[in-house]
Amino acid sequence: HFITKSGMVPPSFRSDAPLTAGPGSGIEWDGQGEYISLVMEFYRFTKDKAFLEAYFDKIEASMRFLEELRNRTLVPSYCTGIPERERFIGILPKSFSHEGYYPEMHSYWDDFWALKGWSDGAEAARILDRKDIEQWAVSQHRLLLDSLSASIKRTIDEKKIDYIPGCAEKGDFDPTSTSIVFFQCQSGLNALPRKQLLAMYERYYNELKKRNEPGWNAGYSPYESRNIIAFIELKQYYRAWFLLDFLMKSRRPAEWNHWAEVVLSNKRTGCYIGDMPHTWAGSGFLNAVALMLVKEKDEALYLLDGVPLSWLKDKGITLKNRQTYFGTITLKTFISNSILYVDISGDAMPPKGFIINPPEKCSEIQININGKHIKEPVKSASFIQFTAKR
What we know:
By secondary structure, the protein is of the alpha/beta class. It has nine helices and eleven strands. A five-stranded mixed sheet has the order 5-6-7-9-10, with no helix packed on it. Strands 3-4-8-11 form a four-stranded mixed sheet. The N and C termini lie far apart (47 Å). The relative contact order is 0.07.
């Protein structure tokens, strides 16, 4: 109801004010891709084609606005007279989407979400047999991806940095805003040079460890829970566990089981801490832990990817009625005498099966599906895959 006729998704709104009156209205662009993604997520879980059809006009309108946004940076007059102008060409315009940028800047966060919008919009069009829209969305995705890749590489070169920058102007170190390419905005990963990507998380981890040293006096945002997912996708499991443990020790008060937007090393320091509890910080944590247990990827369900051994001792893990793209799964798993026991039930049938990543120190695995013992390795006939090594 709140999308404008031009296809703009307002970043915020009030029921008693025009759509253009809310904070950030007209100068935040991540909502375009986020809206399309939200509609597609609902479809993936429900397979409700009538729902997707009902909202497709708004998906198309949001994509039209994305195209118009990118076209703003393609006109010859855009940012003329600015030496770094070439870094801004073909990506989305300046915005306040990244709340740390004032004045507004060319935030790569917006472009990652735009890529997500184009890829999900293309998928929606394919499902509804709208071939013309699908081809257009695929083409726009490629154009933005190429422009984003060129902008990031140019920023790295001109700023002489060895990490992925958060925005084109500052070339700032901000891995937390980049980490969305490992979960929500996966196609954005194709725009990032691997060398600088790995170097960025190496530096982040080294800086993270220093927070446990005596005398560290600073603050951070628990948005960093997104980096747990990045470490897991990079197969840097011990680093993911280190960050998770650090975050869990940073809850204040601990009994509240939450995080504020900003956490300070000295809990008695009077300073800005933002919202408390902060749902973005909490959602990042929930996403990270949920994906360690069950994750949809490449038409398969990945189980226990990044789960530490300690979670599986004693009674282990029980996950009941977890909704996935492929149906519902209940998972019961524990380890005893170096044997990993995995019991899977429910109606989930991922096309490429289940892929179980057992913890280290696991010498054997026993799998039961809906009460039936499965000998490993079992191939696609039973919709099971098994990987013995990380």
